[in-house]
Specification:
Oligomer: single chain
Order of helices and strands: EHHHEHEHEEHHHHEEEHHHHHHHH
Strand content: 5-15%
Number of domains: 3
Largest sheet: 5 strands, antiparallel
CATH topology of the largest domain: BirA Bifunctional Protein, domain 2
Distance between the termini: 60 Å
CATH architecture of the largest domain: 2-Layer Sandwich
Shape: flat
Number of helices: 17
Helix content: 40-55%
Strand order of the largest sheet: 1-3-5-4-2
Length: about 450
């Protein structure tokens, strides 16, 4: 079976071209008869050169040796030198399924069929790994009409379908049911670690709403009560929900097989009528109120950035040394749970240097930079002493002092990094806390 993919290349087109044409990746050993035949051809082209290798590289509408220059010439001709410089596609085969010759022929056929009438390309087949695979580097500008290469999901679909058809023509297997895009790695790691994401939080909200509903109208009402917006129009292909504090909606069928339109309707209509009693009981449940001094009271005695970050750590559940319940967090805070340690380091630094304003932060960063420069100069002096012809005790002392200065510089560099993070994230922290305060005020007014 063949696996395909395509992505864009920014910067210089020479890098991917040099990579895919790397002789160590595209060469294979010849038989004795092939060595002699190849030697005869090379001797005819360049009598002074001898080789025992064959390179699986083909230029389409260009020369492999001058592909980069020809790519650039096309861009200059049409005045389109910005943006993506090329696109990189590959086609990989299962181990032992094809020979290098057949893989390269399929790769060239695939490239010619899809883009050979408009774009310059270099096709190279790598045989240095257990999976023989072909790389296709495509110029981002058409030599025929000067239009840009358009990369989208439809382009990838065409690539996959053409690859499957050509593989079947050559008697090779294909992937019958491709799974498409996998789960985002960041979200996957968060969910695997048991941390909340907008997806598993949405699943929880939908499950709670389904469990308390006997029809779709009641289901909508329960979602509204939890702050969710929804689009359940019959004319729409997909049902969507938007978590509170988010602008981007979620297609609920992507949450799993239990969250398709049909599955949700089935789950709702299978509920027992007693769920209405549970819904009424929950609506009359009153929270307990205690008039006790809390950690938040001490935080509110601070000012500026120090107060901002201390309160954010408190809202994330980091400051109170108890186990945080993720389901009670505001939705906009849940994505930052994995960054609790980072926010804690930022709060500690702000408290250590009593930083309250952006001006204080800028001055602190300047002081740290000046201190690092001073320590770097001292370290350079110690390193020069360590290289001189002096008694061993003096050179060893200089080396130890240089190591200690390096440790201090490393700590200062870390503090400078934390300061930059505060600069970048303070606006995000303010916006999130404003949303939290606004939503809590709305709850009080109900």
């Amino acid at each position: 079976m063949a696996v395909t993919k395509i992505w864009n290349i920014r910067g210089k087109a020479g890098s991917p071209l040099e990579y895919i044409a790397n002789p160590e990746k595209t060469q294979r050993e010849f038989t004795e008869s092939e060595r002699q035949a190849l030697a005869d051809v090379i001797a005819y082209a360049a009598a002074e050169e001898k080789t025992e290798k064959l390179f699986y590289t083909t230029g389409i509408n260009c020369s492999v040796a001058f592909a980069r220059d020809q790519f650039d010439t096309t861009k200059l001709r049409f005045g389109k030198t910005g943006g993506n410089v090329a696109y990189h596609a590959y086609q990989s085969f299962a181990p032992g399924e094809v020979t290098p010759d057949e893989a390269h022929a399929i790769g060239v056929q695939l490239a010619r069929e899809l883009w050979g009438d408009r774009f310059q390309m270099v096709v190279a087949t790598h045989v240095n790994s257990h999976c023989v695979h072909s790389h296709i580097v495509i110029n981002s500008v058409s030599f025929r009409d000067g239009k840009k290469f358009h990369d989208c999901w439809d382009t990838y679909r065409q690539l996959r379908e053409a690859s499957d058809r050509i593989c079947l023509e050559h008697g090779l297997s294909i992937v019958d049911n491709p799974k498409g895009r996998g789960v985002d790695q960041y979200l996957y790691k968060m969910e695997k670690a048991g941390m909340p994401t907008r997806y598993n939080v949405a699943r929880q909200a939908i499950d709670e709403a389904v469990a308390l509903s006997l029809n779709i109208d009641e289901f909508k009402s329960e979602l509204r009560r939890r702050g969710y917006n929804y689009r359940f129009d019959s004319q729409r292909k997909y049902w969507t929900v938007t978590p509170p504090g988010w602008k981007k909606s979620i297609r609920i069928h992507q949450l799993g097989p239990d969250y398709t339109r049909e599955s949700i309707e089935r789950r709702i209509y299978e509920n027992d009528p007693s769920v209405r009693t549970e819904r009424i009981r929950q609506s009359y449940r009153m929270p307990n109120h205690y008039n006790l001094r809390r950690r938040i009271d001490r935080i509110m005695g601070r000012t500026g950035l120090e107060k901002l970050y201390l309160r954010y750590c408190y809202e994330l559940g980091y400051l109170p040394k108890y186990r945080q319940n993720p389901t009670r967090l505001h939705i906009v805070l849940k994505e930052d749970l994995l960054k609790c340690d980072q926010y804690s380091e930022q709060a500690k630094l702000l408290s250590k240097y009593h930083v309250n304003t952006d001006e204080d932060l800028s001055l602190l960063m300047e002081r740290i930079d000046m201190k690092m420069q001073e320590l770097s100069s001292q370290r350079d002096e110690r390193r020069l002493i360590a290289k001189r012809v002096l008694p061993v005790a003096e050179t060893d002392k200089a080396r130890e002092e240089a190591k200690e200065l390096t440790r201090e510089i490393r700590e200062l560099r870390q503090e400078a990094k934390v300061c930059r993070e505060v600069q970048d994230r303070s606006g995000h922290v303010r916006e999130n806390l404003e949303i939290v305060d606004r939503d809590r005020q709305k709850e009080k007014e109900r």
